[in-house]
Amino acid sequence: MEFVDLKAQYRRIAERVDARIRRVLEHQRFILGPEVAELEQRLAARVGAKHCISCASGTDALLLALLALKIGSASGRNSPDEVITSPFTFFATGEMITLAGARPIFVDIEPVGHNLDPEKIEAAITPRTKAILPISLYGQPADMDAINAIAARHGLAVIEDAAQSFGALYRGRHSGNLSTIGCTSFFPSKPLGCYGDGGACFTNDDALAAAMEQLRNHGQQGRYRHTRIGINGRLDTLQAAVLLAKLEVFDEELTARAEIAGRYTALLKDSVPTPRLLHERTSAWAQYTIEVDDRASVESSLKGAGIPTAVHYPTPLHLQPVYAELARDVGWRIGSFPAAEHAADRVLSLPMHPYLEPHQIEEIAEALKVALRGPVGASAQRV
């Protein structure tokens, strides 16, 4: 059994993918070829944003957003800029804030949904705060209206890390187009993924769009005319071609993901805490993530049954070794963000992709129930 079955997806769309790739091989415009522009137009139209700027990865998308907003080293300010974000996320979120020359300031998460808790944000705002960077974790958007309202009161930008939520809706609006800039990833395992690294930024601001377009290409404004210090962050044309082929079945796959999540929940709701959609939100179901007490035992039992699992994510950012000095400066320690730490100790992601068969979902659910009935599994029952 595969955790994410890309082979099954390829078997379905092989002719479309192969035809798209052949066109690129024929025209030989491997960097910023016509497929890149086509993809950007289609993605922008899909989310309802004025601009889509594709880039080499979701990580680069975050960096481009920060650089375009002149946060960090690009600001020229003496004291370090601060960006408020969640400690419960993939490392790239905090990493790009630091790499840009700013300081990540962590705020705890909501227990349901595992996204940034709006009620805790304002207490973390200082005169150095320049942006809020919420993550739409596991595929469900954060409470973006509440976060945007806080940002507006304090004159801050909002960057949505939508690496896992492209395709999800928040109050009828698309994740990625819910804030100043939305950033997403096309890593192969994402709901819309290419066959390598890829990403995109979305904005309705003309100036920010122009800045990010230049920044992804060495800060160029016209050939060999460099007006900014940028990066080599362009999306390969071949990856754009793959994404265009996958877009043709993306809505069907989102529907399948939602149905699979529903089957999981129906089978598991009386055994473990299962993910729950919050008011007026959908999920792209990048992961289906439950919570268990003795995770190592449950993982081991499922592995023995031939069922792969993953942990997203086992160590909150404030406890990462690289942030030890920052943690000492700010006063973070174990217990500083209890909801994030509680989740990090308990979350477990089950296989999730659009091609899971009903009998596989039942097999996974039954194997999980067996694991929970084991000698230590009993403590993982739902409370």
Structure overview:
The chain is α/β, with parallel strands linked by helices. It folds into two domains: 239 residues, Aspartate Aminotransferase, domain 2; 131 residues, Aspartate Aminotransferase, domain 1 (Alpha-Beta Complex). The chain has eleven helices and eleven strands. The strands form three sheets. Strands 1-9-8-5-4-2-3 form a seven-stranded mixed β-sheet, with helices on both faces. The two termini are 30 Å apart. The C terminus is likely disordered.
From the coordinates shown, what is the CATH architecture of the largest domain?
Answer: 3-Layer(aba) Sandwich
Main pleated-sheet profile: 7 strands, mixed
Low-confidence stretches: 376-383
Q: How much β-strand is present in the residues?
A: 5-15%
How many domains? The number is 2
Q: Tell me the structural class.
A: alpha/beta
Spatial order of strands in the largest sheet: 1-9-8-5-4-2-3
- The CATH superfamily label of the largest domain reads Type I PLP-dependent aspartate aminotransferase-like (Major domain)
**Rough outline:** globular
Mean pLDDT across the residues is 96
Order of helices and strands: HHEHEHEEHEEEEEHHEHHHEH
- The count of DSSP E runs of length 2 or more, i.e. the number of strands, is 11
CATH overall fold name of the largest domain: Aspartate Aminotransferase, domain 2
CATH domain class name of the largest domain:
Alpha Beta
- Which radius of gyration do the C-alpha atoms yield? 21 Å
Question: Can you give the helix content as a percent range?
Answer: 25-40%
